[in-house]
Amino acid sequence: MQVTTPSWPATASRDSPRATDGNTLGRVTDNNVLVSQHFFALKLNKNDVVKVLTALQNASVVTDPTNPEVVNNGGPTDIQALVSGLGEKSTSTTFTKETLSTGVVLISKPSKLNVPPWQFVSAFLGGPSLRTAAWWANAKIYTTTASKKISCSDSSLTKPGRVAIAITGSWDGTDFGLEGGPGPNFNHAKVGVSISNAKHLAIFGDMNQQGAVSGKCASSQNGRGGLFFVIEDQALSTSITASIDGETAPTKGP
């Protein structure tokens, strides 16, 4: 399961409870029901688990596999070895792509690859235009057009398409905000859809719309690692598109 909720799930087992956090939403130190979140669940076979753990290592996932309050490591010895290798900052600058047994594509962005996350995803996928809804706060990455020069990029990537940042959405007649910030009516989920081709992509990620397209390329999320799960499914893509089809962030700040 990929979730965007801070500190949840927070306890690896009932035998090693965390002193300040638990597994009940809204009852943890970081109140994770104050703003919108996303939950993405996917069934994995053993080969998929190996691919996901390897992608997490490449992305410099932050965890402490030696802390029983956080990690309950078990299963086959090769899986345990991969889990034990988590929590170290990766030296990789190479993004990776794996196709899981379900056909879902898994992308891993390493922390040392200093590129704006969602522009990176567009470029990685061959340049489709995307509409995204992620935590949009300082340092803000504004909506970028297909003609926008992205100096913070990698020579192996194609040019990204338009990346539009949704700042409002609606569900069943109720409007809601999709920016980042404290308080209610803000969004901490990290979802995107393709809006320029016939593939109907739905994307679930770990990374916010924060960083830079030029200048300080290691700024904010550019200098962090994360995973993106890409699904080609018309019904899912259409549903997400409808829920984030509101106002769009401008192409530059005040």
Please give a structural write-up.
With 254 residues, this protein is α+β, with helices and mostly antiparallel strands. Helix content is 15%, strand content 17%. The chain has helices spanning 46-58, 77-84, 117-124, 234-243, and strands at 2-3, 39-40, 96-99, 105-109, 130-133, 163-165, 168-171, 174-177, 191-194, 201-205, 226-232. The strands form 3 sheets. The protein has a 7-stranded mixed beta sheet with strand order 3-4-11-10-9-5-6, sandwiched between helices. Strand 9 and strand 10 (201-205) form a beta hairpin. The chain is globular, with a radius of gyration of 18 Å. The relative contact order is 0.17.
Itemize the secondary structure elements and their pairings.
Blueprint lengths: L1 E2 L35 E2 L5 H13 L18 H8 L11 E4 L5 E5 L7 H8 L5 E4 L29 E3 L2 E4 L2 E4 L13 E4 L6 E5 L20 E7 L1 H10 L11
